[in-house]
Structure formats: structure tokens, C-alpha cells
Amino acid sequence: MSLAELVLEGNIRAAARLMRDIDDCRPQAIDELKQLYSRTGNAYIIGITGPPGAGKSTLVDQLTASFRTRGKKVGVVAIDPTSPFTGGAILGDRIRMNRHSCDEGVFIRSLATRGALGGLSRSTSDVALVMDALGMDIVIIETVGVGQDEVDIVKEAHTTCVVMVPGLGDDIQAIKAGILEIGDIFVVNKADRDGADRTARELSTMLEMRQATAGQWNPQVMKTEAQRGTGIEELTDEILAHRDSLLSSGSISNFLRERNQRHFMDVLRDTLFKKALAYMATDDTLERVVTGMGERRTDPYSAVEELVSKLMPV
Amino acid sequence: MSLAELVLEGNIRAAARLMRDIDDCRPQAIDELKQLYSRTGNAYIIGITGPPGAGKSTLVDQLTASFRTRGKKVGVVAIDPTSPFTGGAILGDRIRMNRHSCDEGVFIRSLATRGALGGLSRSTSDVALVMDALGMDIVIIETVGVGQDEVDIVKEAHTTCVVMVPGLGDDIQAIKAGILEIGDIFVVNKADRDGADRTARELSTMLEMRQATAGQWNPQVMKTEAQRGTGIEELTDEILAHRDSLLSSGSISNFLRERNQRHFMDVLRDTLFKKALAYMATDDTLERVVTGMGERRTDPYSAVEELVSKLMPV
User: Fold this and answer.
1) What distance in Å separates the CA atoms of residue A42 and residue B172, rounded to the nearest whole number?
2) Closest C-alpha to B301, from A24, A264, A40
3) Residue B182: which residues within 8 A CB-CB, separation 6 or more?
């Protein structure tokens, strides 16, 4: 049996193997994904994003427990900040959520923020697809919400929760404003800390200033203490309420269309570039261009034009 | 005269105009960059990166003043976290470094983290190139050091300063480990805060654990209070010491080679994708594929293979 067939039967080891192949950019992973694709589209994807130190991992751990209690299988894709030189995720799968480690209904996978630009959003889509095929009802994508990459990843999610904490300094204000538009639900975590009420009020005020459209989802600010489990059931209920709203308003179809288009574009960008790299491996273009640039004889723009007109004659 | 010629004469308004064209992805900007390219490669690029709340903007402001005192012209490219929906940088040029606003030897430009993946690193290179052509001796690139995009941007810099502050919470540890390899100099800012000495000691210990190679640059941990200007001259001296080390050890040539190769690759990836988009604008491929994906009849991997074999027959 192919890996894809095994994954569709719920084989966890096959899924782990396929994800590793995706991570390593092995070409055969693509063939497996092709086989899987028609059987996906069933998982509900939740994005959890926020600045470092907001307690996102603990919150994801609690949400996982909450959905398990409600009988749902839960996949978690944690995007970890990586060492750009040594590769590899810093917070590995192993130190995450030990308490779910014996639960067959939970599948956790860390993805490192390494590799080519644009690759992260692509491999997150692919890994989420495998979890979907494996039969996970809920897939939680956790990411540090600062860079553009991270914001793009969150667009995968049906429901995006933006997690804030009180007192993370001034720059946070800017980021807060920046991610205001992508949040379906806002969470002030560590709500026992000084300033939690103020942070929640500020967020509410900022949200109210946005023009509310009739019939549109109205994001709420929730308070949690993930460490103690406080506010988690309410957050789970709110996520499900957002899902109901997406379905009943019909806005789900636009969302899915955009997500599919983005996925197609990601694969396209990646494939074009890889084919060009493979072509360059067979001749001396790269060497010639880079040496010419060093001597300022060649500029990269003209060099690329020449190469692309050869590679893509259309 | 072309914009490129005006920029090479030191015309600030022409530079601002060209940067706007780059930001808007106007094709004519490429022609200007081609003209500029042979006259660039003179500016020394300094990267300033660190988590939100580390006081990077203030530090950049002080470094700018310090280099001005030493008779250097300074360009600043500040990468601001952006609203992914509304576009536009949140902290605009206007609220940055007002005190340099009347100084012709300082040129400040904010870049928003929007647009296509991979685009940020590309436009940062291009904007830095314009500042170089304009005659800036020093170009400071300031970025929030969390995402992969941001890390890639920092690779542009001859000297990278990683800025930390005491007491930003646990996740910071992970990021600290992640950016340990990219720092040439480490700065503990807000050094008057509780825990500053401990943060500096921890950083030093982590740096000592890395294997030191004979003749290689040995990153130091500096303490600053950017608000008061404390430690700035020492930091400037350390940056210049790192430059001397790059030049005398000869490692500059490898660095420049890698940077040129990366720039070429960025332009290539971008150009290939744009040409494919232009092609798709003329037929119904996109519509057909996205609709097929929605019905799970078409998978994106097979659709891309088909398209790419048509576009790139080589």
C-alpha cells in the first residue's frame, strides 16, 4: 500500500513519515499528496497566533484537551522559530504537550521556520492536508504572529484566534493594530496579570472602531488563564460559534476559494523556481552571474531577464 | 535625466521616487536599478534585529546620530510590521526619528511587510541598493527578528546586531537560541532594567558554548540604554571593529558572494512567478483549477505540473 492509502486508513506512522518527506522536500511526497487530495477538505482549521511570550503553546494544549472532551480528533501544527543556520525546530515535538502523548486522537507536529522563502506557508498547507486525510476533525496551527510568513500561514485557518497578553511593551501596540484584521476571536491570556482588563478594553475599543457590517461576524475579546484552564471552554464555544457563522452566512465559499487559490499559487511559485534551479545545475549560469555581480559587470535584473526568456519562452 | 542618473548625483527626491516605484513593483523601476547597479557596492550595511519591545527604533536613532558625528551619511530601512489587509506601514517614516528630518545626510525609509512571500527580502535589497547609489556610507536595516523573512533580510547586512532586553518572557529564550548564529554583536538594551546583567551573562554563556574557531570573529555582548544614549559610542566602535575583521580576515569575499547569489535568486523567483501570473491572466487556467480544487476533482500538484511543463518546456 502507498503511504497515502495508509494515511487514509488512519495510520499514524505513515502520516508521520509522509510529513517528514514533505519537510525534506522529497519529490515522492508530491505523488502521495496527489492521491490524498480528493479525500481531504473535512478538517476544521483553527489558527492561534500572537507575539512571543503570550502563552500560545499552553493555550493550544488546553484547547486540544477541550476538543478531545467533545469527542474530536485534534491535529496540531506548531510553527517554531528556528535557528536559521542549524535548521531544526527549537521547541521540538517532544517537549510539547506531553500529556497528550499517549492519546491516539492527538497528532502533534512541529514545523521549523527554515528553508526557502514561501516554503513555510506551502509546507504548512501540505502538513495540514495530511492531518485532514488522517481523519483529524480539528487542526490547530500555532504560529508566532509577527512576520509576513506567519500571517500568511494564519490565512489557512477557518477561525483565527489572536492571543495577546498584558504588558509586553510599546511595539506590541503596532503589532496589535497590524493583526487586528486577521483575528476572528481575540484572546487576552494570562488574564490574572496586572493590566489584563485594560488590554482587553483597548482591544475592544479598537475592534469597535472598525465598521461593523450587518450580518458579519463580530469578533469578541475573551479572557483566559491557559495555565489554570480558565476560560478555555468559553473559547472553544466561541470558535464553534464562528464556524456556525461562516457556514450559515455562506462566507465559507469565498474563504475556501481564496485558500485554494493561494495553495495553487504557492505550489506554482515553488515548482517554477525549483525547475529553474534544476536547469541551472546543468550549466554555468549561476557561477557566471554571481562572479559578474561581484565585479559589478553584471546586474541581477538583466541576468534574470535573459535566463527567464530562455526558460519560459511563452 | 533618468531617475538612476539623478540618484547617482545624490538627488534625494529622485531616490524617494525610485523607492516608491520599487515598492509598487513598477516595471520601470527595474530599468533604473539596472543603470544603478554598476555604481553600487560602496555602502556598509548594518542589520539591527530583535523581538518587539526591544527598543530597536531608538537604538537605530542613536546609532544614526553617532555615525553622523563621525561624518558618515546614513540611510535607514525600517521594516515595519504591517496590517496584512490594509497594507501600509504602521509606524510611518513620519513618526520615526524626527530629529534627523532636517539633516540631508540622513535618509529614512519604512518598508511594509506586505505583498507576496519572498518580496520583502527582494525589495529590501533593492531599496538598500538605491541608498548605496545615493551615496550613503552606512545603511541600517532594522527588522523584527522573528520570522524567516526577517532573518533573511538580516543576511543582507555586513554586521548584524541582535538586540535583546531583560524580561520579555519564556518564548524569548527560544528566539534567543534561534538568532544566536546570526548575530555579530549582541546588545542588551534597556540595561538599567532589572535582570539586564543576568540576560547579558546568559547570552555570553550561550555564545561561549559555541565552538570558537581561531581567527574568527568572536561576538561580544554590549549593554546600552538607547533612551539616554548610554553605550552607543562603544557599540559604534564594535561595529567598526567587526568591519575591520571582515576585511582583514578576507571573509568578506565569501559573504559578498553569498549575498549576490541570494539577490539573483530572489529576483529570479519573483520574475518567474510574475511571468506565470501574466500568462494565466490570458486564459482560464486559474479559474478552472481553483474551481476543480473546490470540488476536490483537481489537485493543485497535478495542475501545477501540467502548467509548468507548458510554461517551461526545458
Assistant:
1) 35
2) A264
3) A84, A85, B49, B151, B154, B155, B160, B162
Q: Is residue B186 part of a domain?
A: yes
Reduced to 3 states (helix: H, G, I; strand: E, B; else coil), residue A219 is coil
CA distance B291 to chain A (A): 8
Residues 6 or more apart in contact with residue A236 via CB below 8 angstroms? A63, A66, A67, A70
Distance from CA of A124 to the nearest CA of B (A): 14
What would the pLDDT profile of A265-312 be if each residue is shown by its tens digit? 999 999 999 999 999 999 999 999 999 999 999 999 999 999 999 999
Q: Would you say A182 and B84 are in contact if contact means Cβ atoms under 8 Å apart?
A: yes
Q: Which residue has the cell 557561477?
A: A287
Orientation angle between helical segments A285-294 and A300-311, nearest 10 degrees = 160
CATH number reported for the structural domain that contains residue B148 in this entry: 3.40.50.300
Instruction: Identify the closest residue of chain A to B296 by CA–CA distance.
Output: A38
* DSSP-assigned beta bridge partners for residue A77: A109, A141
Instruction: Give B269's contacts in chain A (Cβ within 8 Å).
Output: 117-118, 269, 272-273
B149 shares its domain with B186: yes
Does residue B281 sit within a domain?
A: no
Proportion of chain A above pLDDT 90, given as a percent? 61
Considering only CB atoms, which chain A residues are within 8 Å of B168?
52-53, 168-169
Residue of A190, A299, A306, A307 for testing the chain B interface, max B β-carbons within 10 Å? A299
First to last CA, chain A: 40
% of residues, chain A, pLDDT over 70: 83
Within this chain, do residues A133 and A173 fall inside the same structural domain, yes or no?
A: yes
For chains A and B, CB pairs below 8 A equal: 263
Which residues of chain A does B271 touch, with a Cβ-Cβ cutoff of 8 Å?
Answer: 304-305, 308
Measured between beta carbons, which residues in chain A are less than 8 angstroms from residue B276? Answer: 268, 272, 312
Residue A100 and residue A181 in one domain: yes
- Number of structural domains (chain B) is 2
B86 and B189 share one domain:
yes
Mean pLDDT of B35-64: 91
Q: Is residue A267 part of a domain?
A: no
* Crossing angle of helices A251-280 and B285-294, rounded to 10°: 120
Q: Are the beta carbons of A121 and B120 separated by less than 8 Å?
A: no
Residue of A nearest to B92 (CA): A174
Q: Answer whether B168 sits within 8 Å of A53, measured CB to CB.
A: yes
**Beta-carbon contacts of residue B185 (< 8 Å; ≥ 6 apart):** B159, B160, B161, B162, B219, B220, B222, B235, B238, B239, B242
DSSP-assigned letter for residue B78: E
Write out the residue range of the structural domain in which residue A29 sits.
1-39
Report CB contact under 8 Å: B147, A147: yes
Task: State whether B84 and A181 contact (CB < 8 Å).
Answer: yes
Q: What ipTM was estimated for this complex? A: 0.88
B14-42 pLDDT tens trace: 999 999 998 888 889 999 999 999 999 99
Which of A249, A268, A295 finishes a domain? A249
* Residue contact B91–A174, C-beta within 8 A: yes
Using CA coordinates, name the residue in chain B closest to A274: B269
Using CB atoms, which residue from A177, A267, A300 is nearest to B90? A177
